[in-house]
Amino acid sequence: MSRVIAIPALQDNYIWIVEQNNQAVVVDPGESKPVLDYLRNNKIQPVAILITHHHLDHTGGIGELLSQFNIPVYGPAKEVIPHQTHRLFEKNLVHIASMNLTYQVIECPGHTLGHIAFYGHRQLFCGDTLFSGGCGRIFEGTHAQMYESLTKLSALPDDTQIFAAHEYTLSNLAFAHEIEPNNQCIQSAITKAKLNLSKHIPTLPSTIGREKTINPFLRCQTLKSQMGTEDEPSTFSRLREKKDSFR
Ligand SMILES: [Zn+2]
User: Fold this and answer.
1) How far is residue 121's CA from residue 62's CA, in Å, rounded to a whole number?
2) Domain hosting residue 179, numbered range
3) What CATH number is attached to the domain comprising 167?
4) Catalytic member of 28, 53, 54, 177
């Protein structure tokens, strides 16, 4: 059985390491040093790098890792990723044979145009698309694309664990609370996130089922009338605009 470790990196990134029998898959290494330290200290051999999108805080460590390990780099076909060896499209499968892992590729444009997520073994590595309590900023795509991407991810089984790439949970939940002040699930999520962070424990992974109760961007159907919008894509758009200016 594999386990997933969070390596805190840069300002508020998590580099996720899936490890099993002293082998590891490294997801979105924005920097190399904390990853190399972890691998060395635990005598773990990396076997592959997975990349969700081209931003430097997800790719900055690839070069240095490759200078020490000759391993494949899987990433989105529609973006330029340094040292990429495998260009992935929707529904492609990534097989990590030595660890008996398989991930399905889900294209989820919005934050960036080529952004992908990796789904397998009831685990989702979704980069900067879906966060706990929120979603990524829309830098390259349209609101409609991001809404569709989140709809795809939220259709995964409720017990799917979400390994997002940033520790944004508490600030996301502050916005969620402002939108739904009477939502008990959001209130208890805030309490739990504060407790975790006070002990330096990541608030992730969350799950799809849990996010459906606390994440306004997955609750467009419920929030539609409150937001005074006609359909769910416009509810999403209104929420995203409000969040962009929320302090
Ligand atoms: Zn990003």
Assistant:
1) 25
2) 3-244
3) 3.60.15.10
4) 53
SS3 172: helix
Helix pair angle (143-154, 232-244), 10° resolution: 110
CA of 184 to the centre of ligand 1 (A): 30
Q: Is the pLDDT of residue 247 over 90?
A: no
Span from the CA of 115 to the centroid of ligand 1 (angstroms): 9
- Per the structure, how many domains does the chain have? 1
C-alpha 182 to ligand 1 mean position (Å): 31
What per-residue confidence (pLDDT) applies to 175?
98
Question: Active site residue: 111, 121, 143, 159, which one?
Answer: 111
pLDDT at residue 1 tops 90 = no
> pTM surpassing 0.90?
yes
Q: Would residue 143 show up in a list of annotated catalytic residues for this protein?
A: no
Task: Tell me the per-residue pLDDT of 83-107, one tens digit each, with 9 for 90 and over.
Answer: 999 999 999 999 999 999 999 999 9
Q: Which of 12, 28, 37, 58 is catalytic?
A: 58
pLDDT, tens digit, 9 for 90 and up, residues 66-85: 999 999 999 999 999 999 99
